[in-house]
Amino acid sequence: MLGEKSHHFETNSDDGISIEDCSNRVFGIIFDKFHGDVCPNKNQKVESFLNNNTEIKEFFSNVGNRTRFVSIIEKQNEPSKSHIKDYYFSLLHTMNEIIAINTKNKSIKKNSYFISATTKIKIAKQFRHRIIIVTWIPSCERNQQIIKSCDVNKYDYFIKEIGLPTYHVSPYPYQSEICIKGGILPHYIIGFSYKDSFIVNPHLLTQISASYDFESLLKDGISINQTSFDDEFQKTKYKERFLCIDGYYLEY
User: Fold this and answer.
1) Which pLDDT band holds residue 2 (cuts at 50, 70, 90)?
2) CB-based burial label for 127 (10 Å; 0-12, 13-18, 19+)
């Protein structure tokens, strides 16, 4: 299933921001988006967010901090760069629609490697068009795979320690949003609801009925045969896809 949020994979990563790209260019783009599209934005939601997160407003409003921002991040190791990138980029992803409406700039939507999910069924029903996909992510991989906008402070201490601004209140705290990297993998789909029905992933039923090791299933996901993936991929309009191994990502 290819949805609205899959636009990111319509172009080659050289044209945008890939999941694993932690170059100085990417962090320059992130700073420019905050400086040019977020901080001057007069939308009520954006202004409320900035007033509740003055560190973000003060830091990114000053164009002189761009060199400092990139330089501080450049000194970090690769895993730390990835965390920093996700920390700020997930915020831009969450604010994408506001930015796009007020600046006529759709680049975040095209460049975002995140998709939005929520822990609240009532919120999901507000956004659904036809179906709601129910999924899980192994606890051992959550730090790599997701950013909870309602729990962003898990990175706060580290980011504050290296001298970068942190935020404490999401633009939409009531939505309990989770930003998932790349996409929802079939290995972790429990099923989906459609109208008044809930359809369980048949692969899940097969493995449970075969006395599959449930602990392993929770950790490693459902066994899915992907041998025909490349053949099916070639039939689509998409230029790239992503590979996830133990919480680490690669676009190719």
Assistant:
1) low
2) exposed
